[in-house]
Amino acid sequence: MIVFLLWALLVVLVLTAAYLMLRRRADAMAARERDLERPETETLRYTLPPGQDPAIVLAALKRGGFAALSPATSTQPHVIIECPQGREQAREPARELLERAATTGFEGERIDVHHVHFDDEEG
After folding, report:
1. Which 3-state string (H, E, C) describes the chain?
2. Closest Cα to residue 84, out of 44, 33, 27?
3. pLDDT tens per residue, range 59-102
4. pTM flag (> 0.85)
5. 39-123 has which fold?
6. CA distance 121 to 40
7. From 1, 16, 32, 56, which residue has the greatest number of CB atoms within 10 Å?
């Protein structure tokens, strides 16, 4: 009986620890999203073409040294790219990374990303 109670206690402790770690991570991501959406934070916003996987875009930007996120609550899939040195200095390096990112969608279809435009640009 004691062994069963110890195992049950261990399971409860492990589940509680996992919940707390996931909660901390979710809170950190929400805080990061709020920071990037503040008006004084310089960012670039890139609306994803239909079918493009945001994870591939985020990975390419991270490899290039950019902090970015794709808000899960958005109706239009997009990526917000942090620009600590300013938008204009980050624009072309970020564009090059996005144009070189994998160009397949969720189901393997080809996606044309050779003319990346940020939301603040015309055309």
Report:
1. CHHHHHHHHHHHHHHHHHHHHHHHHHHHHHHHHHHHCCCCCCEEEEECCCCECHHHHHHHHHHCCCCEECCCCCCCCEEEEECCCCHHHHHHHHHHHHHHCCCEECCCCECCCCCCCCCCCCC
2. 44
3. 999 999 999 988 877 678 889 999 988 989 999 999 999 988 76
4. no
5. Alpha-Beta Plaits (3.30.70)
6. 19
7. 56
